[in-house]
Amino acid sequence: MKKRFFGMVILVGIMSIAALYAGGQAENTIEFGVNYELTGGFPIIGTSAKEGVALAVEEINAAGGVKVGDTMYTLVPKYLDNGFNESEAAVVTQKFADDDDIVAIIGPNDSAMCLASAQIVNAQKIPTITPWATNIDITKTGDYFFRACFTDDFQGAILAKYAYDKEGSRTAASLYDKSNPYNVGIATIFAKTFEELGGKIAEMQTYSAGDTDFNAQLTRIINKKPDILILPNFYEEVVNQASQARKLGYAGKFIGSDTWGDSSILDADTEGLLNNAVWVGHYHVDIASPSALKFIDSYKKKFGTSKVPNDIVALNYDTVYLLKQAIENGNKVDRASVQKGLSMIKKFEGVTGSMQFGGAILGDPLKSAVMIQIKDGAFKFLTIEKP
Hints:
CATH topology of the largest domain: Rossmann fold
Number of domains: 2
Structural class: alpha/beta
Strand order of the largest sheet: 8-7-9-10-11-14-15
Largest sheet: 7 strands, mixed
Radius of gyration: 23 Å
CATH superfamily of the largest domain: Response regulator
Order of helices and strands: HEHEEHEHEEHEHEHEHEHEHHHEEEE
Helix content: 40-55%
Strand content: 15-25%
CATH architecture of the largest domain: 3-Layer(aba) Sandwich
Number of helices: 12
């Protein structure tokens, strides 16, 4: 009889613990999904995203958590890798949508992955914030997709204006990955704006994801003798493209988009091929606010590095705080309230700058960009470009 009673006590205890953590949701916790690109073609995206999310979550929880009514909640991220694959990004989104404990999603970071997930996000009504994806169509799909960054139409236009006005370029060419909507969007908007300013697009050449030999495309570009070549591609590809261009005799200038924003591009460019090249980014240490400087210092201490965190880290960090504000605005722990809370945000001050919401597209912030130059193996701040 005692054995049976003792067994029942244990069973009740186990059931109580199970109830407390049912579905992974502990009492006074808020779970959110992180749909990130940890493996695949550009794993640095996922690594950086996870660092930014982890640092923000650690800070928020250490400060007491998220306040909803009179209750403080602990944030709990759930990470799933999409492998930098559109189909898998959609699968991850659906997994989070099917998990009732997940109140929101952060990510994906890549535009193609976001576009593949957008229909699910809006159909399932799960509020989602992409930290880094700039394709203009993402947030046009419905009122549940938001972003913490500027858009391609903005950065593509300011790159064209910079090339024409500041670099004095009158002819331009582009080499870009035709398989990714991000690369296509930047190249297309750059070309349109550059020609509207009075410049001429001499050549637009494309390649497919995974290609490493660009000699044929670059030969056609170089034969047109453009003043400047835009490479709106990921940093892992850019140095190889610049190297092949220089070997073929290209002597003009390079300009790039926000996918250049990691110091690994500097480490890979051992010959200084990109010296004096300009790209558009989201923030820079030289103009960092006190909160941004604190973030940079915290990042270095947490991850034991002397490197300044890249744009992806900073944007994912901002996105967690954006989610925190949305939850507190909605004042209830459910998806509808988080979406309402996001839609209530009119201004948000992040480490990557001030975001003004409330424009024509609900999920798009008005946000400044930073023009940065590669100079003697470092990123040098040039100008702030306002929308």
